[in-house]
Amino acid sequence: MRVDRRWLGLLGAIALVVAVWNLALFTVPQWMQAMVVQLGEPVRVVREPGLYWKIPFIQQVIYFDRRLLDYDAASKDILTIDKQQLSVDNYSRWRIADPLQFYRTVRDERGAQSRLDDIVYSDLRETLGRHTLRDIVSDKRDQLMADVTARSAEKAKVYGIEVVDVRIKRADLPEKNEQTVFGRMRSERERQAKKFRAEGDEEARKIRSESDKQVQILLADATQQAEVIRGEGDANATRIFADAYGRDPDFYAFQRTLEAYRSALTTGTTVILSPKSEFFRFLERAESGGEPK
Amino acid sequence: MLMPDRWDGSPRHSPQDSLGQLVDLSERLRQRLGEARGGGWRVSPWWFAGALLVLWALSGIYIVAPDQRGVVLRFGKVVGETDPGPHYHLPWPIEQVLRPSVTAIRKEEIGFRTIEVGPPARYQEVDAEALMLTGDENIVKLEFIVQYKVRADSTGTSDFLFNVRDADGAVRAAAEAGMREVIGRTAIDQVLTEGKEQVQLEAQKLLQAILDRYGAGIEIVTVKLQDVDPPDQVSDAFKDVISAQQDKERLINEARGYANDVVPRARGQAAQTVNEAEAYRETKVREATGTAQRFTKQQEEYAKAKDVTRRRLYLETMESILPGANKIVMDDLAGKQAVPYLPLEAVVPRREAPASAPAGGGR
Description:
The structure holds two protein chains of two kinds. Among the domains of chain A are: 2-65, no CATH class; 69-173, 2-Layer Sandwich (Tetrahydropterin Synthase, Chain A), CATH 3.30.479; 249-284, no CATH class. Chain A is 56% helix and 22% strand. Chain A has helices at residues 2-23, 99-105, 109-128, 133-139, 141-156, 175-246, 249-264, 281-284, and strands at residues 25-28, 32-38, 41-46, 50-53, 59-65, 69-72, 76-79, 85-96, 161-172, 270-273. In chain A, the strands form three sheets. In chain A, strands 6, 7, 8 and 9 form a four-stranded antiparallel β-sheet that branches. Chain B has helices spanning 15-36, 45-58, 127-130, 156-162, 167-184, 188-192, 196-214, 235-304, 306-321, 332-338, 344-347; strands at 61-64, 70-74, 77-82, 85-88, 95-98, 106-110, 112-116, 122-125, 131-133, 139-150, 218-229, 326-329. The chains are: A alpha+beta, B alpha+beta. Chains A and B meet through helix 1, strand 6, helix 4, strand 9 and helix 6 of A and helix 1, helix 2, strand 9, helix 4 and helix 5 of B. Strand 10 (270-273) of chain A pairs parallel with strand 12 of chain B.
């Protein structure tokens, strides 16, 4: 039975280690913090991770998350100062800053959530209620959120809660106001469309009339130039004729008259001729060759 | 409750169970050996305890996969981080290792969900997330994705694991809030057109700032706008603006086409008019020159023999005229008296009025 006792010793040692591990020791992981409660009364808060002692059976360990926690509220209707209704969906990031205080006031995360709901919502409603929709949506969003965060953080302190960030996730208009916005957007776009079409018409007319103008000017210029050129032609011709005819105006008159006869006295013209005319000079007195003049 | 909820590796082992199994196993082994050899061979408990210790020590060997990073916890406290490869840690319950995947790029979809990765991929829009108020109090429908990963610096992995519970949810919520804030500062036309790049950059910066404030150990790789549209209720009005813009372009182009058509034609016509005039001028001048030269030549010859030529020309003319004319030959005196009495019928057999022009003779 010597062997059995040795085995028993070994098993006993193992059992002892396990018992001590489970009953007198506890570890706090990196992402946790803990509180030692003795007979229901908190006695010690452990903030740092590591291995710690406790008195078996009398002391219990309650763990709290040390990480940043989420609180996502249901969306709520808030009235802005310019009487716009806004459906606000916000979230908060918070952590358990003081486990003791936390345990005493809200006990656990569920309790904290409902307390946060009250605090953040009232601050949010109050702060946003003092601003216009425009401020909330665009101009001062940052500032307002910082305000709400600061105010909520102040109030949440008594619960051992540190509110790190309150942020509006969504801020939407209720159905009815949405329709108004859509109506405005629509009319705005219609205005733009009209403007574009009118501008197109404007440009097109400008271009067309400009080109029509150019055409007319081009043609008028050409006509002007052409008239001048024709005038030059006529002038030159006149000069040439005058130069030539001027050398013997008498012959010109004679020749030109004859030419005019040819064209004026066409076939069928009745001509009354005097026997004394040049043409009949030889008809009566063939022998007397008098000059016609 | 002790394990972080995104802990990648499972607990190394459950000690009570395995210890119990080992004891149980060795007991049975001992019994069987004892029976076989008639109780001649016995296992020493010290030897057994030693073997157990060795096994226990060996359980500290672990491998970090290429996409992972190991975080070693000693009694829950971080004592170091390890790179991919084989490593050793003191065995459970002294040390533990968390091995989150850190190189993987994670993704959050906002405003839509991928139902089927495809191909063909199918998406479903989530209007509640997608509709946002813009700076000029319009509403825009915006779908975007956020890609992020665990920050790659020395504390990134620890921050990611230990600072924020549900980091993915934090990214998602912060992304929604951040994007709405950016859109809330931007006019709708900016968002819909050239401002997209700017929106993405600003949202990424803001989101990174928010997450840094949480100490989330997350690096935003990119914020990418997928679809940015006007809401369905007004999309036809927006489309009409586009088509109005195109109408404008079209009208202008048509007008330009008209200009391109008529102006060159007019230039051609103008050139034609000028050319015709020039042709007229040149013709006139040449004709005149010709006629003048003809006259000059004739005159030169005429000057040499004036009388003869004069008479010849006269007679030739008469000769060519008279054959076709109705001729009445009258003495001058008779003519003076008779003319008033000439029966018009006789004198004018045709319709032409009596031509008395050459009555005076060849003058």
